[in-house]
Amino acid sequence: MNSIFYELQRTFRSKFVLIMMGIIILVAALIAYLLASGPASVPVSQRSITDEGLFNGVDSLFGFLIPILAIFMGYFTYGKDRTSGVLESVVTRPVTKSELLVTRFIASIIAILIAVVISVMLVDAGQMSYFRKGMPANMIAALIWIYFVEGASFIGLIYLFAHLVKSQSSLLGLAIALFIVFSLLWSTVSTIVLVEVFHGSISSLSTLQGQINFNFASPSGYGKNVAIYVTHLVTLTSIAGTNIRVNPASYGITELSVGAIGIIWMAVPILLAFLLARKRD
What we know:
By secondary structure, this protein is mainly α. It has one domain. A two-stranded antiparallel ribbon has the order 1-2. Helix 1 packs across helix 5, helix 3 packs antiparallel against helix 7 and helix 9 crosses helix 10.
C-alpha cells in the first residue's frame, strides 16, 4: 500500500478525529433542528431572522469548537508522535518526515473542511425549512473560509511547536495555552492592552481600529474580522450585544487584507514546521 495513502487513511481512522467531527456536526444538527422547529402557527410571511444575526451566532459557536478540534487534531495526528519519538519508527522510504508532515496536515484540514461544510449546510437547511430562505452564498462561503483558515492555522502551529519542544507534556501545555490565549482570551487581551497601555477609550470607535489590528494577529481573531467584512457589523466591547454598522474598508478590512492574512496564517506555521522536518530527513 502506498505509504502516503496509508497516512491519509490513518487520520480518518482516528477515533479522536471522528469523535470531534461528530460533535461539530451534531451541534450543527441541533442548531438546524431549533431553527426548523419554530412555532408552526406563525404565518410564513411573519417569520423573520436576520442573516447577520444567524451568521454571528454560528460564528460564535463554531469559533469555539473548531480551534479545539484543530489543536488536538494537530497533537494526536503529528505532535504526539513527533515528541515521543514514535514518528521516527514509522517513517519508511519513500516517505520522508517532511512528506509525512504534509500528508497528515492535508488529511487533518480535509477532515475539518468536511465537518465544516456539512455543519454549515445543516444550519442552512434548518433555516430554509422554517424561514423559507437560505443563508446568502457569501455568508456560507465566509463561514467555510473562516474555519478552514482557523483549522489550518492551529494545526500548523501545533506541528511547528512539535519541532520546538522535546516532550509530550510540554507540547500539550503549549496547545492548551494556545487555545486559551488565541481563542478564549484574545478579545480581553486586546482590550487590556489598548486601554491600559495605550490609554484608549473602551467605547471609542477609534479604539476599534486597534481591536481589529489585534484580531488579525490571532487565527480566532481573524475570523471576527471576516465577520465584520461580511456583515458590516461590530460589537463594541463596552456595550455587549450592541451592534454598530461600520464600513469595513475604513478600518483596513478589505478583500485583499482578509485574503492575504488568511493565507499567511495558513501557510507560515506549516511552512516553518516543514522546513524543520526537512532538516531531519
